[in-house]
Amino acid sequence: MIRKTSLGVAVALSLATSTAALAETITIATVNNGDMIRMQGYTDQFTQQTGINVEWVTLEENVLRQRVTTDITTKGGAFDIMTIGMYETPIWGANGWLVPLHKNVNFNTNNLSDAYDVDDILPAMRGGLSHDGTLYAAPFYGESSMIMYRTDLMAKAGLKMPDAPTWDFIAKAAKAMTDRSNDINGICLRGKAGWGEGGAFITAMSNSFGARWFDMDWNATFDQKPWADTLNFFVGMMNESGPKGYATNGFNENLSLFQQGKCGMWIDATVAASFVTNPKDSTVADKVGFALAPDTGLGKRSNWLWAWALAIPAGTQKEKAALQFIEWATSKEYIELVAAKEGWANVPPGARTSLYENPNYTKVPFAQMTLDSILSADPNNSTVEPSPYVGIQFAAIPEFAGIATQVSQEFSAVYAGQQSVEEALAKAQDITNEAMEAAGYR
């Protein structure tokens, strides 16, 4: 039995047998991204294999983060599996809020089987989902960010995309590809408020301009030139070449625009490559090229590192069943299942080394650029000037999510024309310093 719940609306499918009536049911909170929706379509096979039923709670990214954070911090017990990422996992694992999936010598608990092959997980993904050497979440897919662009529009503009472009080139190309009369925007980027939405993008971008969230004494740095350079460049480029209303566009909104042929370039998660090249969904599937995220020549690119991963909250009464689902959904066998049904281009990327050694997958046009982007992202050394935190598009401290959500709201107000860059940066400086002082960092 599969039960899918989206924003509180449940649809139940019942089975007639008494065995099914007595079967265990686990509840999973997940994000409404394409790969997660695809996973739900295959869950009946998991139920057939194990007898374990699955109830889904599928939420928009910002809402998901709020719901699972509230549930785990209040010990609400609403979920047996949560879809979380590299920001939450090490913090929650350190707090004892998650069940360890693969133990180190200090743990003696149920963990992933030898057949699962934990060592096959890409080191960047395993490291980002661990604390003190113990894996607390299994990556369903991993990602960096990269440029996806229309090869036909780039050629029409008389330009050639470098494999590793600068932001100046991107702004020039965006202007050249913009065609308002035909509803084509030269570039589509996230402006939507939320620390993991527009906040993630502008933070990763700021790294390439020499900015950082904090100096080595945990002082905010929004009053310094690199942040002004970042925001002014972003706003100028988007006002000139971006879509109207970009202040409310996140991953899914920009994906839709690109698939409809309304974007010349889109810089976002590498996982989107399979969606924009899928002829079932994308009107420009045969006209997409890929390049590394831009830089400014300072030694840092503007790509991030992330994994959407499955974790088990401590205290669940269904730990064994939850572990079985995680093993199934993040296994090599699941990848092969999707490949057999939908082709290698549509398998969950960025999580396993063996995928990038598979000759079937290396033929996928975006496979190598995805891997190069992931490998070039270094969360331990993400800024031009030294910083006291780990993370690329976030700072891995518990206070960051709340602070960055507020700061991203101020930035989105700039994008919407409601305040100036200077006003937003001044507010960001005060918001961040006050929160850090209250938390005892300063």
Name given to the CATH architecture of the largest domain: 3-Layer(aba) Sandwich
Assembly annotation: single chain
CATH homologous superfamily grouping of the largest domain: Periplasmic binding protein-like II
Mean pLDDT: 92
User: How many structural domains are formed by the residues?
Assistant: 2
Radius of gyration (Å): 22 Å
Helix content: 25-40%
What is the number of beta strands? 12
Which outline best applies? Answer: globular
Please summarize what this structure is:
The protein is of the alpha/beta class.
Account of the 3D structure:
With 442 residues, the chain is α/β, with parallel strands linked by helices. It folds into two domains: 2-136 and 306-357, Periplasmic binding protein-like II (D-Maltodextrin-Binding Protein, domain 2, 3-Layer(aba) Sandwich); 145-304 and 385-438, D-Maltodextrin-Binding Protein, domain 2 (3-Layer(aba) Sandwich). The chain is built from 18 helices and twelve strands. The chain has a seven-stranded mixed beta sheet. The chain has a three-stranded antiparallel beta sheet with strand order 10-9-11. β6 and β7 (134-135) form a beta hairpin. α17 packs antiparallel against α18 (421-438).
